[in-house]
Specification:
Layout (H helix, E strand, L loop, with lengths): L3 E4 L4 E5 L5 E9 L2 E8 L9 H16 L2 E3 L3 H9 L11 H4 L3
Parallel strand pairs: 4-5
Antiparallel strand pairs: 1-2, 2-3, 3-4
Length: 100
């Protein structure tokens, strides 16, 4: 799969694509939580699992850091709703918002 890196300076996870484009997921850290407000995959790269690679890597990182997750981005909300293995990462009250 694609090589995902964490860019601390820009507060985002990134994948540098072969054509020079960059796919990314922004994050914000606050009080033991990480919020993912925005994910961008260039349109000509959609449907290739790039967004899922960003989500999986960033959620693995959140787990390793002991952070709870607020999926403010619709992609993260949908990803987390579909993947039971990350439900435990949801910040208090978020599971109910997602209908879980």
């Amino acid at each position: 799969m694609k090589n995902v890196s964490r860019n601390e300076a820009k507060q985002r996870f990134e994948i540098h694509l072969d054509d020079g484009a960059v796919a990314f997921s922004d994050y914000r850290l606050t009080d033991g939580k990480v919020t993912f407000p925005h994910t961008v995959v260039p349109p000509h790269h959609e449907g290739q699992g790039i967004g899922s690679a960003l989500a999986k890597t960033s959620l693995d990182w959140a787990r390793g850091e002991g952070l709870k997750v607020v999926p403010a981005c619709s992609f993260y909300a949908n990803y987390m709703a579909r993947h039971a293995e990350v439900h435990d990462l949801l910040a208090p009250g978020v599971a109910e918002q997602l209908g879980l």
